[in-house]
């Protein structure tokens, strides 16, 4: 018997993105699933958009006061009927066999939760494709996330994540964290004896941020969240989490070496790194403009994440601040 699926979408304002997501869901080869859309206090009316799809999709729509994505997903999960909860962000597009592959994989790959990759759609603009590269590349933190072939366990991300409803309820769903709530859930599952898996045939097209400023702010927040996660789950700390901070500090040391000693030994390694990123991005995208912007987005990602990680580590471990006091915006409003 095939598993029943409830897709849960927490959304705030993104009307156009919601239209694209629902359009992709109308094209599914397997149409046996429900969609739970939870409007997290949007200032834009989403009902007209949803109304366009009510005849072709089994949609349940709810609206609540704004509290952030994690608690909003919990709200939707509590109103879902499926055996499995599939969380996707409102700014993704899924391929037509997404549901079909999920059901087949659940039956053949034993797990309590799963996740899939993200990639750039051919319709994305050049900057979105460059940011997608840096967020998934083996030369950045994207290469640390894990995959089917990774030695470590895979941590599903909430833009493309499935969990058994009974298991989700048992661990209490997403925590009070606003940033980093998805790896937090994955590690909570492990700590309770549950397993996660990577499904390599359910990748989604994830738009992410549309300019470098927003992207920098986003990955900075990710960096801040990691030391908090390390405190919450000390058994799953990895030295690789500090790599962007070491990258940033090494770059600063390279400039000091150059200006104080007249040597560029350290910076030469960064020149090689830049060369590798440029040609790897060019090989994957076949576009020199995307490759050039991928270099920029890669450095933004490493520096912003690295700075956020360093700041958070100092506040939590040197000044002994509580995470809720150091980063109040990282926690949901109750």
From TrEMBL:
Q: May I have one GO cellular component term?
A: plasma membrane
Q: Which Gene3D superfamilies match?
A: Spore Coat Polysaccharide Biosynthesis Protein SpsA, Chain A
Where does this protein reside within or beyond the cell?
A: Cell membrane
Annotated membrane-spanning segments are 241-260, 267-284, 290-310
State the Gene Ontology terms under molecular function.
glycosyltransferase activity
User: Where does it primarily localize?
Assistant: membrane
Question: Which Pfam families does the record cross-reference, listed alphabetically?
Answer: Glyco_trans_2_3 (PF13632), Glycos_transf_2 (PF00535)
Q: Which InterPro entries match?
A: Glyco_trans_2-like (IPR001173), Nucleotide-diphossugar_trans (IPR029044)
Q: Which UniProt keywords apply?
A: Cell membrane, Glycosyltransferase, Membrane, Transferase, Transmembrane, Transmembrane helix
Q: Where is the Glycosyltransferase 2-like domain?
A: 6-136, 160-278
UniProt name for this protein: Glycosyltransferase, GT2 family
């Amino acid at each position: 018997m095939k598993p029943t699926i409830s897709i849960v979408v927490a959304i705030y304002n993104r009307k156009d993105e919601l239209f694209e997501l629902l359009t992709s869901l109308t094209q599914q080869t397997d149409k046996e699933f429900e969609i739970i859309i939870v409007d997290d206090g949007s200032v834009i009316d989403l009902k007209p958009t949803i109304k366009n799809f009510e005849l072709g999709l089994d949609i349940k729509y709810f609206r609540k006061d704004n509290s952030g994505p994690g608690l909003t997903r919990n709200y939707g999960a509590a109103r879902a009927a499926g055996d499995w909860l599939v969380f996707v962000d409102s700014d993704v597009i899924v391929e037509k066999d997404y549901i079909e592959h999920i059901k087949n994989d659940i039956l053949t790959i034993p797990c309590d939760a799963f996740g899939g990759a993200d990639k750039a759609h051919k319709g994305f603009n050049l900057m979105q494709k460059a940011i997608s590269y840096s967020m998934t590349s083996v030369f950045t933190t994207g290469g640390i996330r894990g995959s089917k072939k990774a030695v470590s366990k895979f941590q599903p991300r909430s833009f493309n994540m499935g969990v058994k409803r009974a298991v989700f309820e048992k661990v209490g769903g997403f925590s009070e964290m606003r940033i980093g709530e998805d790896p937090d859930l994955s590690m909570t599952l492990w700590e309770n004896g549950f397993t996660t898996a990577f499904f390599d045939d359910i990748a989604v097209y994830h738009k992410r941020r549309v300019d470098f400023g927003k992207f920098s702010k986003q990955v900075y927040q990710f960096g801040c969240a990691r030391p908090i996660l390390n405190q919450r789950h000390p058994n799953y700390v990895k030295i690789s989490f500090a790599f962007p901070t070491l990258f940033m500090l090494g770059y600063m040391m390279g400039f000091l070496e150059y200006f104080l000693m007249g040597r560029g030994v350290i910076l030469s390694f960064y020149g090689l790194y830049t060369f590798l990123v440029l040609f790897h991005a060019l090989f994957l995208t076949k576009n020199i403009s995307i490759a050039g912007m991928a270099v920029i987005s890669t450095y933004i990602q490493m520096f912003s994440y690295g700075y956020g990680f360093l700041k958070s580590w100092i506040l939590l471990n040197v000044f002994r601040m509580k995470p809720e006091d150091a980063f109040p915006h990282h926690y949901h409003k109750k």
